[in-house]
Structure formats: structure tokens, C-alpha cells
Amino acid sequence: MIWKKLSKEKEEGNIEYKLKIVKPDKERIEKLASQMRYRLREGGGEAIYEIGVSNDGTLIGLSEEEIAETLQWLEMAAEKIGAKISILREGRGKRGKVLELLVRMIKEDFPIYVMIPVLGNVDSGKSTLISVLCSGELDDGNGLARSKVVRFLHELKSGRTSSISSHFLGFDEIGNIVNYNLVTPLDEAEVFLNSSKLVCFVDLGGHERYLRTTLKGVTGRSPDYVMLCVAANAGFIGTAKEHLGITMVLKIPVFIVITKIDMVPSEITSRVISEVVRILKKPGINKIPIIVNEIDDVIVAARNMASRRIVPIFLVSNTTGEGLDLLRTFLNVLPPRLKWEEKLDKPFKMYVEEKFNVRGVGTVVSGLALQGEVKVDDYMQLGPFRDGSFRLVRVRSIHVNRVNVDKAVAGQEVCLALRNISYDEVEKGMCILGKNATPKAVRSFKAKVTILHHPTTIKRGYQAVMHIHTIRQSAKFIEMEKEPLRTGDTAIVKLEFCFKPEYICEGDWFVFREGRTKGFGIILKVF
Q: Could you read off the pLDDT of 455-469 as tens digits, one per residue?
């Protein structure tokens, strides 16, 4: 295989070119280690090294001896900063071999996090795919895999997911899957403790009836990417198109997995691929589809995902295992998109997604830490309550992925046991903020909205359900710069919450819905 010329090396980013390293002195090794640390920081704990490549991207290539020596010195530099190197792929340059390497930090406090909600129409195999990926055991075609990840009995009986649940696929520092070496592959705590990188799948409902729960699962997290499942025996139908629209609106990169390819002839699969490609190329979506057939496609797709221009398409079978290895490799090399380390020095902020009344512990809340850090015994502000006030509460204990920890940081799914608050006083959508923050409860806000679909027209007094982070509340249109609004219109409007104040900030994105009406917006000003 001969690669094409690469683009010129960039000063920023997590990709480094190295022609060769020959007998470096101690100072040179230190410089290599410092450079590697910078590249790892740019990539959120992961970096790509191209060996045998000049700075202008020309593939020169090296002999076997030069490759071996270069690898030896790079591994020494990696060891100094607590990282490991694995080979992704090999190619040929003008004079010899070219290597592409993945450098990953060995786990220190917390693993690298990649958050991926899983969307798609009902019966497209979302839960089954998550189970097969995380457990390593294939499905029997009769719901065996799915039964391992459902939360409730009614979901098992109906075959439909109606709740939100998280499942973890862990990789070690050289890219091996941690789950498959555990006695219980789906044990969140064990996967968390043994992984250098965690892919968190958020399993969501595909039926139109559960759209509000699905929206909460996407807006309540800060997804790096979205995995959209399409069943080969059904095609791109139903809520799959709506879910694709949500990813476009929220500007989240998406990759598509066509499941159940063992159930239909190759002609039908080809027809579904053509349909998916046609939709992705439509004006308004305007994406570049990549059908993933080999490892080269995987690397190119993973490297360019953050641009949101390309959409990789995988073909898999959960019963025969076909195509799953390419998908696993893709998930291993897929870099985290969001730079959580930049938010660590800000005051703590987390929206309540779920609440629990735990015997012997008391009130426990869970959600995604959006910024800052929290420690055991810290005092935090919780609110707003219905009168617009916030209350000081103390953090009794912290759990991350069912593991008891002393602190949690931005980007993690966190459970906090709280003192000085009762279970009934907490409401989903409330915000937990640092002690020194000066929060204000918001009754109304100005926003720029776009109507995606509405059967008639929208006028003042119109009400719709707003999804902002984990907040889910009806709001009324009270002022509009353009009236009425129809499908496709964009306008500046003023909205007012119908029941109680919320904590929202300028720049927050939201999705709203009412019956068949769908729209989205961004908050410009809060009152």
C-alpha cells in the first residue's frame, strides 16, 4: 500500500511528523519528551506520530534498522512522560517503510473520555450493538445481547428502549479492549479503573413517543460525537432522519452504522447505502460520506471527524461479527473532540439529570460536570428553587462510574451525595454551582430561533417545550421581531418560562418541540 503525500505539518494539533531519530543525546531526548507532552495535551491525551515523513508531508520512508532505532528513542521519550506507543498502520514511502503511531497517556487520575449518544429509528439495533461492543459476545438474533443492557422489565418485554442509560467501552494504553479481559465485561467500575480511554455510549430510545427523553439524553450531555444506527432491513426511515437533523442543529459530528447486514442480500444493503449517501449529500446537510472498508478508511475517518464535514459509514452484523473489528479500531483512535482541561479552572457547574433517594445516604444527584471540579466536603449552591433562590449544600461523597472518589472534574458523569437538602426539594434541571458563584434565576430570555418544521404558523402566545441542558420546561413566545413564523424562518424572539425560573446562560443552545413542531435556537440575553 502506498500512501499519498500528507499535508504540511502544523504547529498546533496532536499530529507530529518525524523523518528519523538517530543517536540522540540526553538533551534531545528531553526535547522529544516535551514535544510529545505538548502534542498529547493538544489531543486530550492522544497524539498521532508519522514516522519516515518530512515536515512538508513527503513520504520518504526508512529502512527496517532506521525504523527500529527511531521507535526505540520515541518509546524512551514516551516512558519519561508516562505514555505508550502502538502502531496503527504501515505504508511505503520513496525509500522504504512509513509508520503511523498512536501515542496515548497511561491512566493517572482519570481516563480519556469520549461521549457518544447512540441514535436511530426504533428496531435499528442500537442497544444490541452497544452490548456486543461492550461485552464482546455476539447476539443470537433473538435479543440475547440486548437483554444485558436494558434497564427495565418493560423495555425487555417490548423490545424498545424508553430510558437513558450509559455503557462503557474501555481501552488500555496500547489500544486493547479492557472489557473483554474482565469477569464481568459490563461492570462500569472495573472498566473505569482499568482503562486509559473510555468510550461512553448513551443508549437512547428510537420511537417517536420517547423523543423528549432522547432530546434530554443529547442536550443534557456534551457529546463528542453521535453514532446513528440504520437497519439494513428497513433503511433510513422514521426518527433516524429527525435524529440526523438534531445532530446538524447542535453541530455534533456523526458517524453511521448500518446494522443487520446478515439479514438481507447484498443488493438490499447496497440500496440502503445509496439512500444514506444521497441524504448526506442533500443541500442543507452537505456531508462527505466515507464507506469504511479497510483500516486506511478508519484512520482517515477518525482523523477528520472533528471537522464535521465527513460522515463515516460502517457495515456491521451483531450476530456474525462482520465489520465490528473496523468499528472497534475506529473507536480506539477516535480523539476526544471537547477540550475539558480548558474548563477546569472555572467554577464548578453541573445540571441535575437524575435524582435518587438512597437508604443510609440520603439525596443523591447525577449529571455531567460541565466545568471546574468538586471535592468531598465542598459547599455548593443548588437551585434555582421555585422562588428563584439558591441554597448552600454540602457534598458528602462523590462517585464516578460507580467508583468512590475524592474529587470529580469537568467532562465526567458524576454522582453527588448531598447534605442539607431533601429528595423532594430537588428537581431535574436544577444547577449545582461553586460556592463563590453569583447565580441569577432566569424567568425570560431573548434568543435567535429557527423553525425546522411547523404545520401552520407561530404567533405570540405560542408555547413549546424547551430542552436546554437537562432542563425540560414549556416556554411562551412573548415578543417576536417577525410574526408569524413558518417552517424555515429564523428570527429574534423573547421567551418566558411558564412554570418556574431556570439557570441558563448566554450562548446556550436549545431545542424546542410541540406536537410535530420542531425548532432550535441560541440564547442571546437572559433577564
A: 889 999 999 999 999
Q: Tell me the C-alpha distance between 469 and 38, whole Å.
A: 32
Residue 135 pLDDT greater than 80, yes or no? yes
- Residue positions counted in the chain: 527
> How do beta strands 379-383 and 407-409 pair?
unpaired
Say which residue, 392 or 159, is predicted with more confidence.
392
The three-state secondary structure class of 347 is: coil
- Report the distance separating Cα 326 and Cα 292, nearest Å: 8
Q: What is the pLDDT of residues 164-192, one digit of tens each?
A: 999 999 999 999 999 999 999 999 999 99
Q: Which residues of 38-69 are buried (b: 16+ CB within 10 A; e: fewer)?
A: ebbebbbbbbbbbbbbbeeebbebbeeebbeb
What the block records as the C-alpha cell of 471 is 432542563
Task: Report CA torsion sign: 484, 490, 491, 493.
Answer: positive
Under 8 Å CB-to-CB from 424, ≥6 apart: which residues? none
Helix (H, G, I), strand (E, B) or coil at 22: coil
CA 480 to chain centroid, in Å, comes to 34
Q: How far is CA 367 from CA 78, 122, 162, in A?
A: 34, 26, 19
Q: What distance in Å separates the CA atoms of residue 384 and residue 94, rounded to the nearest whole number?
A: 64
Three-state secondary structure string covering 494-526 = EEEECCCCECCCCCCEEEEEECCEEEEEEEEEE
pTM exceeds cut of 0.90? yes
Over the stretch 350-387, which tens digit does the pLDDT of each residue have?
999 999 999 999 999 999 999 999 999 999 999 999 99
Kindly report the three-state secondary structure assignment for every residue of 290-336: EECCCHHHHHHHHHHHHHCCEEEEEECCCCCCCCHHHHHHHHHHCCC
Q: Rounded to 5 degrees, what are φ and ψ at 337?
A: -90, -35
